[in-house]
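Tutorial sheet, problem 5. The three components below are modelled jointly, 938 residues in total.
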Amino acid sequence: MDLNIFWYLVPSVIMFAAGVYGFITRKNMIAMLISLELILNSADLNFVVFNRYLFPGSMEGMIFTLFAIAIAAAETAIAISIIINIYREVGNSDVASVKQMRF
Amino acid sequence: MDITLPILILAIPFLMFLILGIGGVKMSRKLAGVLGILGMGSVMTLSYVVALTYFFSGDAAFIVDGVRQQLQVFDVTWLAFTDRLVVNIGFLLDPISAMMLVVITTISFMVHLYSWGYMEHEPGFQRYYAFLSLFSFSMLGLVVATNIFQMYIFWELVGVSSYLLIGFFYKLPSAVSASKKAFIVTRFADLFMLIGILVLSWYVSQTPADGPLGGASAFNFMMLNSQPTNVLASTLGATFMGGSVLTWAMILIFVGGMGKSAMMPLHIWLPDAMEGPTPVSALIHAATMVVAGVYLVARFFPLYCIVPDSLTFITVVGAITAFYAAVVACAQIDIKRVLAFSTISQIAFMMVSLGCAYNEPVEGVHYSGLGYMASMFHLFTHAMFKALLFLGAGALIHAVHSNNYTSMGGLRKYMPITHWTFLIGCLAIAGIPPFSGFFSKDEMLAAMFSRHWFWGAWMTMVAGLTAFYMFRLYYLIFWWEENPEYKNGHKPHDAPWQMSLPLIILAAVSCVAGFIPFGELVTFNGEPYHIHIEAPVAATSITVAVLAIALATVMYRKKNSMPEKMKNIWPGLWTAANRRFYWDEMYQWVTHTVIFGCICRGIAWFDRHIIDGTMDGLAAVTQFCSVKIKGMQSGSVQTYVAWYLLGAILLGAITWICIL
Amino acid sequence: MDSVANIILYFVVAAIIVVFSIMTVTSRRILRSATYLLFVLIGTALFYFQLGYQFLGGVQIAVYAGGIMVLFVFSILLTRRPDEETARLESYRRRAGAFMALAGTVLLLLAIFYMPLVGGESLAGSIEAGQMITMQDIGHAMLGTDRFQYLLPFEAVSVLLLSCIIGGVVVARKR
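Model answer (structure tokens):
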């Protein structure tokens, strides 16, 4: 039994679907951010897997993932600072309380 | 001639218009009035200097071998459309423009002075003087135009200033509608004039530049008038609406003059224009602007002569108008209306006289250009005595506060200055020697008789009617029966000096103007002509005038029942004349029932339902869609993501299906 | 033919990732879901190790598991009490989320299994085919300017991180 590319892609898909589910259903903004991290992580994993199986001679997938992790860190930091700010303004971190930008 | 004076003549009224129009709000009435009068006075002085220099200096530029020359003092290019189609702005000096400079500035100055008293208590005094200056500027620019396009521009400007001044009392609905009527009717006529100008200049500009017409601008008066045969030749071979191009062009240009000069059937605006202040009626609607049509024909005289049909047209239109206006004037109650119809009739006189002139020697006629000279002479004298009559009417209205003779009567004891000057004006217009109207009218009648006995007889009859209605007016105002209101209560009195002085000056001018050797100064070709009275014509016209005056004296000197009896012989005629033979009603019917009712209603329906409907429909659809979809912008991030994902999944599914 | 140890390791890690992913998004206590996320991230790092990317695995643990998780925990503790439960979800929202997730999963799985992905059939073979990536290689790739070298993105990321630090301070500071 060989561990071919599909073995790695399936957990990645499930991780992605779980992230989507969480992002749509969670009410807490930090919980949404956590779901977002799942989605990002599945994408990172895909890059690495494709790099390993389809283009073993190069390392662009890995480099890309490195940058993605760095940018994810930055994004998370900014998002959390915004959430804390909102929490100060409205007293909770519920996404339903941030609906001013509507018709 | 140095160009400083001509430029100043045009610039000062324009500057006055700007100063009074922009700064008038901040000025006191006195300052505005003094500024306007001083400005006009200086323009009058300058015009006198220019005219006297032109006529009497004997300079080689103005007169060569006894022939007065036409010269362009300056002529600068303003718009160049093509090589030949060039519009210039300039200053043309010839006998008629020099004469018009004198007339316009004199009357305008008198009116400026008179208005100081007449308009003293009216609101908008400064605005009034600004408009007067604008009018003077436009009229001066019109008469000195070097080319027909410049003339057209100033022609429209006088129309605008006439509009502004008729509607000066803009709170009166009648004044507003009268100003609109005047503007629309004259503008309608000017449309034909513009077409005529374009037709003429188009064919002239088509001729080669090295041809007989030369390379000058196709609009230029001097070029057109100096070689009428070549102009005619350039348009031969082409037809316009089934006729000769030049005949059509000249008749169309004359239609513009018909509008301005209130010839039938475009006369309807002039009686209503009397809604304006009386000095304005004197200046614009009696002395200057309304003779612009006569001036136009005189300006183009060589071209009119080369197409005799157009001269016949002018004669016929003038003869009909003169008679019509004279009859209507006999049955008016408003004294300004009487004077307005009298003006129409007198202008028609000038038109007929022009139409009866020739520009080349004719067998059996001792002087062929007599009609031209006489017409210009009458233009001059008529301007003076008609302005006098209007200003006198203004003084009466000022004193009595009514336009109708029914509230006057017996005024001679109360207003002696007005009475005597008005009488002089009436004698002048009736053609009694030695007042100025006699001389000019005699020359005109002589010219008409030399053309055809019919025109002479017809216009002699009109002259008799003129004498009759003027003296009817005179007796009804100053004699008849004294209005009992004068005894107890408000006593009318003569006007202040600002108003009396112009009356006296104009009356004096009307007494002596007939002795000006006009033929020596203004003729169609510049050669002097020595005026001599033709005894048979003069005797006839004097007899007719005296008889008419005698009839008026019998009927109207003392209150009696004779006018009432005569009216009852055929009451329908009197009513019809009083209602101006229903011309206004006809226009009303045509515009309202035919044009508005039939044509415009369909257009309006199309506009409201099809054009507006399309636009409204677009707006409604957009609004409907936006209302329906605006709920999608809920502000909820998760909903957005859900929709986005749904879209992405659908796209993926579609791609998948397509690949399979 | 992959080694049995690798296969066993794979199954263990895959089970961790699948189970804890789902528990992350279904747990009603937010601090717990953060903890489950930590397990998912560590599982991913293990996959990276298994695939032969040791440096990347290290970065994953250091940055994600070490840095970002601390941020999460701090922010959770700052914005609510740790034992507070979230309100129950509206059922329509849960249905919508489940539908999206399932539809996405189905589509992606279909794509994965029907797409002709040409490549190594086994993990061992793939690792054989590629070279061992050393720290030196990564260093050269990060700080070179040639083809397949990434100095400019590297510097851009460093600027991004700097602005992110400043931005985080500016946005979150007390006014």
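Marking note: Chain A is about 75% helix and 0% strand. Full credit if you identified this.
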